């Protein structure tokens, strides 16, 4: 049976974060609040846990799972290199609603789906998410919903869709307006906006000092 914790209650928050950390380390799934929508997450380095995540969402590996990190410095161990454009965007928008696509480090032993050698990274602006990420390390996190349904804006909404496939639900209250992150692809010669969301294309262009290509 899934465990649920109200993170607005200090004792429950402490207990819930500890339970979530145990679940992640055991290869199980957790639902956590983020600054955009609720996420379903697991250990990014557990291929079986990522497969369970995709199964819970009824989604195939053709849509790779993004990775959330708890600090700026974590990215250095996950990617092939961090270009100046990435550093500039991280300094401007992390933690926050901007996801970066970069070539991942070839030495990493993970399977996030059909990534074609890339990984999508983000540092969320939410205290519960950050505390968990700083405890367990990088997590594979996707929106907490069944594929084709609306992203969950609350823990009960996530539970109604994902049920007992999740071990721990961390309830951080309503997520507010369900705006997805903006995705910027930095794998090519020119930065490219794959999806405009919480951060405007204009704001990205201003930081990089150049017009942005859109996909």
TrEMBL record:
- Please state every residue range assigned to the domain named YrdC-like: 14-199
The record lists the catalysed reaction(s) as: L-threonine + hydrogencarbonate + ATP = L-threonylcarbamoyladenylate + diphosphate + H2O
SUPFAM superfamilies named among the record's database cross-references: YrdC/RibB
| InterPro entries linked to this entry | DHBP_synth_RibB-like_a/b_dom (IPR017945), Sua5-like_dom (IPR006070), TC-AMP_synthase_SUA5 (IPR050156)
Q: Which Pfam families match?
A: Sua5_yciO_yrdC
- GO: which molecular function terms? L-threonylcarbamoyladenylate synthase
Q: What is its main location?
A: cytoplasm
The protein's location, in the record's own words, is: Cytoplasm
The similarity comment for this entry is: Belongs to the SUA5 family.
Q: What is this protein called?
A: L-threonylcarbamoyladenylate synthase
UniProt source species? Pseudonocardia aurantiaca
